[in-house]
Amino acid sequence: MKSEPDAYSIDDLERDQVEPWDGIRNYQARNFMRDDMKIGDKIFFYHSNANPIAIVGTMEVASEPYPDPTQFDPDNKYFDEKSSEENPRWQLVDVKFIQKFENPVTREAMKEEPELEDMLIFKRSRLSITPVTEAEWKKIHEMAGVSVPG
DNA sequence: GCCAACGTTGGC
DNA sequence: GCCAACGTTGGC
Description:
Largest sheet: 5 strands, mixed
Helix content: 10-25%
CATH class: Alpha Beta
Order of helices and strands: EHEHEEEEEHHH
Shape: globular
CATH architecture: Roll
Structural class: alpha+beta
CATH superfamily: ph1033 like domains
Number of helices: 5
Number of strands: 7
Strand order of the largest sheet: 1-3-4-7-2
């Protein structure tokens, strides 16, 4: 899952521990949260529009999907006038901090690994949530120099 | 239902 | 800051 660190970083999540992943306004990304995520599923935290651009740690799904409250708040930048409490358009999950990598795995380094060349993050440039395979999960932990949790 | 115009994301 | 990619909107 991508986030711009200026908006919300891995350090923010370490401080908050659990956070609703709000503001997703792309149907495909929403569908991943709504349909494919289960409590306990593991997630990479990716810093986009950052220096360096990198996977900076991990987190896990900490709730069932539920309506993103920001869509109902007219003062919120993510307000959606076409959505309603009766028929909410946007769903999210809570995420829970697992760890921050001491050595973030940069996009640059990931691009150099043939094992990672099929990652959707390289193929779907503007999608902020993309699935990751078990092999990619392990490889990136290896590159970060940490053991795979669990 | 097509598609041009427009807006946003995000790497570079 | 530029701009490619691409999702969304709205006129027809």
